[in-house]
Amino acid sequence: MTAKRLFDLIVSLALLALFSPIMLATALCVRLALGPGVLFRQKRPGLYGRPFTILKFRTMRAGPGTDAQRLTPFGRFLRATSLDELPELLNVLRGEMSLVGPRPLLLRYLSLYTREQMRRHEALPGITGLAQVSGRNALSWEERFALDVWYVDHRTFRLDLVILARTVAAVFTRRGIHAEGAATMPEFTGIKPGLHGPDPRD
């Protein structure tokens, strides 16, 4: 067992114990606000693109419409406070995710990545990551992928601690929760090869 995996296990267990009353209260509120089905489950690409089922609290009502139209005021609050992400601690316990790593996106995006962008899957996906503390959904896709790949190439235990500390600050300031005109980010439709975001070290 690596030091990173051991750290993930210890911290995720501690956070689940600490936040269990909040998670129970949130589950009850989701049930009352949105009806049956407290958890949102969806297949996402994990390490090397292998699919796993991500767990979140539901934030959208069922039925037709865009994500922005189906996102409820309570769901918007859950996203703004990142409470919807707490069930992902169970994914960390299962070894499907890490506390820190590139965020797992949609399976259908896999065929749209360039070879360089695909390298973001060389690390376990994370609950938080370098892109999330550097602008989150206010970043362009090019910027997000550049940060993800940079993290894969430069990941260290110290960097993970820095990202976790910056995550706490980002949650409280609620920066970059969604891109303009979208519930989170606009649909990724591919990026022309050769386009890259800024060097994340700048």
List keywords for this structure.
10% strand; 202 residues; two-stranded parallel ribbon; mainly alpha; 4 strands; two-stranded antiparallel ribbon
How would the global form be characterised? Answer: globular
Continuous helix count: 7
Helical amount: 40-55%
Ends distance: 34 Å
> Kindly state the mean pLDDT as a whole number?
88
Main structural class: mainly alpha
Order of helices and strands: HEEHHHEHEHH
Number of strands: 4
Largest sheet: 2 strands, antiparallel
Overview of the structural elements:
- 43% of the residues lie in helices and 10% in strands.
- It is mainly α.
- The strands form 2 sheets. It has a two-stranded antiparallel ribbon. Strands 3-4 form a two-stranded parallel ribbon.
- The protein is globular and about 45 Å long.
- The C terminus is likely disordered.
Summarize the structure.
By secondary structure, the protein is mainly α. The protein has helices spanning 3-34, 67-70, 73-81, 88-94, 115-118, 141-154, 157-173, and strands at 39-45, 51-57, 98-100, 126-128.
